[in-house]
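The passage that follows is intended for readers who have already worked through the single-chain material. We present the inputs for a multi-component assembly, then the predicted structure in tokenized form, and finally a short commentary. You are encouraged to pause after the input and sketch how you expect the pieces to fit together before reading on.
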Amino acid sequence: MTNRLRKWITFGVIVIVALAAFVLFNAIISGKCDAACTIGMLNQTLRYAAPIALAAYCGILCERAAVIDIGIEGKMLMAAMVAYAINLLAFVTLKGAGLDARTAGDASRVIALVSAVTASGLLALLHGIVSIRYRADQIISGTVINILAIGITGYFYRQFLAQDIPAGPGTFPPFDIPLLAQIPVLGEIFFTSQKPIVYLMLFLTFAIHLVLFYTPWGLRTRAVGENPRAADTVGINVFRVRYINVVFGGLVAGFGGAWFTLEAVDVFNPLMTNGLGYIGLAAMIFGNWSPIGALLGALIFGLGSSMTSQISIFRPDIPSQLPQMLPYILTMIVLAGIVGRATPPAADGQPYEKQ
Amino acid sequence: MSSIADQSARVDARAALLKTLDVLSMPAIAMVLAFGGGALIIWITSGDLGTVFAAYGGMINGAFFKTRGLSETLVATTPYIFLALAVSLGFKAGLFNIGVEGQFYIGAISAAWAGVAFAGLPAIIHLPLMLLASALGGAVWGMIPGYLKAKTGAHEVINTIMMNYIAFRFVEYLVSGPLRDSKSSAVQTERISRDAELWSLYQIPERLSDPGNALLVSILVAFSAIILARLILAQPRWTRVANRALMMWGAGIASGILTFIALPPLTRAVWLFTDQYDRMHVGLLGALAAAAFVAWLLWKTTLGFEMRMTGASPDAARYAGVNSTRTIVVTMAISGALAGMAGATEVLGVSICRCLPLFFSSGYGFESIAIALLAKNSPLGIVFGAFLFGAMRNGSDLMELNSGVSKYVISLIQGLVLLFVAAPLMLRALLRMRAPRAGESDAPLTRGWGG
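Having made your guess, compare it with the prediction:
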């Protein structure tokens, strides 16, 4: 079977499964979701897909340079907490300095976003140092990041954020993209009333795709991921490429983390990332380590989540925990069905030692 | 000639000593550095050096010296031992079971279910049934990712984490739905009868006055005596003794009968544990037995050998004829069963209602990964590591009360421990120690997505 044929068959299976899921969904809610509601649901799908896709892009950037990153979840949790805390702090400070609430809110959200991304980048740097320089087991190192992030966010939350705190400026306001929103259906799904990180996610999909496959940097990254020894021989600095990719991945994951407290809700809860970072890794594997494929995977998970929330609206009699298990089960099915056919970068997970 | 032999023997002895010191010192240094890091963070966030002393003083006081401090520490140690053993068993076979938390939940709900479903049976059957249910539940939960890993190559790290989230929702659903105790206003499962719980040490004299319980204990004692006698008789100096089988069985049966006759009156006469609020229970003995079992499994059985071989080099194991599918599935099942039994000790020994409440959150799972790594997967090391983490967990309450430092700081410290343990090269660089010679480094613990 040729590779191309296999790809089409996989695609066909996905489409059929998606249609079956949709029919099942309509049967469960007995067809109460009309056209407008369906478009609303798909719009929500994109929203839910954003953090998953960003986590997947982080994974892609790291693993294309052969560094496995299990710590995405921890980085997102860290970014979510930092975004929330800085958003509050900056808002109070700026308002104290005499700015009006609207300007102060806009400014503090941007400051919060930058800080969150930086915090996530710093954790990524730690992962890089431990696993690249000190050649620790990469999966263990990622687990360290996760546990550290749970500890740090839990500590700061209990120590400072759990008491009565002033109201913050809230989340980013949604907006439409001027021309693209006019496109029928697709425009309503992708470019209407989304928030900035979602649009950024769409932009990054293509940006990362271009960088990885059409620039010298991308070629170097992929060379380091497939055969670091050969890359070293032709003069590529393997360590530098890995560090930069891991840190950039951390920054991207930081946007995904900021999504939780700057776009979804304006409160922080310990453990609020709920495993989305790991689901992002599943989306990455599903997309065969390419951003566009990963986006498709993230959209499938997003669809699962938005169906879950629709079911809980239309069928309150079903215990909410049962549909909530769906995305996780979906992840396992996808992994079981795809992994044998997916090919990770050849040197994935192996520390490099200069000779 | 002899002087050279002497010399080399002396060098060997010195190397062995250095190696032992090295094995012990790295975890110790990691702990010290982690507590140092924790102190730094407390100092910075509180702006007062005194808070650090108040916090750590409170922690030590709470863990060992306050009323029931030590016994509560041992209560917390019990699930840690089970869970860290589960994690380490996976590591030995090259599998990273992050799913022990979910297996713990499933074990707990299985025990709670069996406690209600088989209510009315005599305790001597009921209690083992509940333990069996918890082990089976955990084993199934561990087996699914194991099977997927072996058959499809789906990485167990993601799948066990997904199984964690599924377990949380599933248990939440069961506790608030089908298994909810309708007579109670709190959302929790039905109480398990007092007869069938894990005995607290305080109750032992009272329990033993029932001949059925005394019989159960005597059988367990006889069984352990047989194992112990076997171990002793396997020593070289005993090889020439005739009738070793007779001695073994004799020792077992004699100690069993002796226990049955003498132990109940003896415990009624003299008993150390007189505090009726003391929650320390026999689960700790079970955990120690589990540690012995894991050591035996890994180093004395074919299955254990196959596990270690698969962990060290899957390809070599396959060429040598090891059925890797079977090894992976069985390892994950045993690992899950150990984690599930930790859940049973929580329901049957610790929780005050002898049931499973909604929102029982343990957090034991992630921390036990740190214990397994700290102990370098050695069962004996795990027992000590679990005690240390149990002390931290138990001491953290008094720490929070005394110093106002959130008890979450211990998960931060545990993260730092893990960081230093996971990157031995970094620790050496920090301390300016020389790196180990090539070939001394440990086998890789985990593997990439390729399977």
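Commentary: The first helix of chain B runs from residue 2 to 46. Chain B touches chain A through 58 residues (CB under 8 Å). How closely did your sketch match?
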